[in-house]
Amino acid sequence: MAGLSGAARTRSGSPGSSAALPALDGAFLRSPLGGLMGAQAVLGLLVWALIADTTYHLHAAYGWVMFVSIFFWIVTVLFFVTYLLQLQLRFYLIPWPLVLMIFNAVATVLYITAFVTCAAAVQPTSWRQWDYNRRAAASFFAGLTMIAYGASTFFSFRAWKGFSSNAATSQVTDHM
Questions:
Q1: pLDDT tens-digit profile of 33-50?
Q2: What is the rounded CA–CA span in Å between residue 57 and residue 44?
Q3: Which of 16, 19, 110, 111 is the most exposed place for a label (fewest CB within 10 A)?
Q4: How far is CA 165 from CA 15, 99, 105, 115, in A?
Q5: What is the pTM of this model?
Q6: Residue 3 has what pLDDT?
Q7: How far apart are CA 46 and CA 25, in angstroms?
Q8: Chain Cα centroid distance, residue 170
């Protein structure tokens, strides 16, 4: 997976110097995980913006949906920036593929609960029609966000296990 490899990168300059600005990782943006993280950020933003524009404070169920959507939106944006700027290479002791897989799995499970909660709390007999429309749209986008996190869990699991290449065939042998 692009953006998740732990390969060493060479730098020019003295060992004590550091680059002023980290380089953007274009390969990460084109990778499945990069695209899914971008989609999660957009969809998660839609979920909490749609719920925030209703009278969610009158219904306790929407407090949970707001918590899940805002929390995972913030953490997803932080991970996205970390991988986009290749900051994970500076913290090489952290097992980033494993951390990302656990994060995506937890986000998937909690977004399942948020989706079910949001969908179950939508009432078509709401006294404010625009609240119904926004809550129904938030339920739809919460479902899409849940699917995006599930797909990210799959891809991050593959990156963690190293399914992108076969260890037996990727080694060069020089037998005569």
A1: 999 999 999 999 999 999
A2: 19
A3: 16
A4: 32, 20, 23, 35
A5: 0.77
A6: 52
A7: 26
A8: 29
Identity of the residue numbered 73 = W
Residue pair 62/55 in contact (Cβ under 8 Å)? The answer is no
DSSP string across 1-61: -TTT--------S-TT---SSPPP-HHHHHSHHHHHHHHHHHHHHHHHHHHHTS-GGG-HH
pLDDT confidence bin for 126, thresholds 50/70/90: low
Helix axes 96-121, 60-84, angle to 10 degrees: 150
Residue 150 C-alpha from the chain's centroid: 10
The type of residue at 31 is S
Question: How many other C-beta atoms can be found within 10 angstroms of the C-beta atom of residue 139?
Answer: 22
Contact 135, 19 (CB under 8 A): no
CB distance 31 to 1 below 8 Å: yes
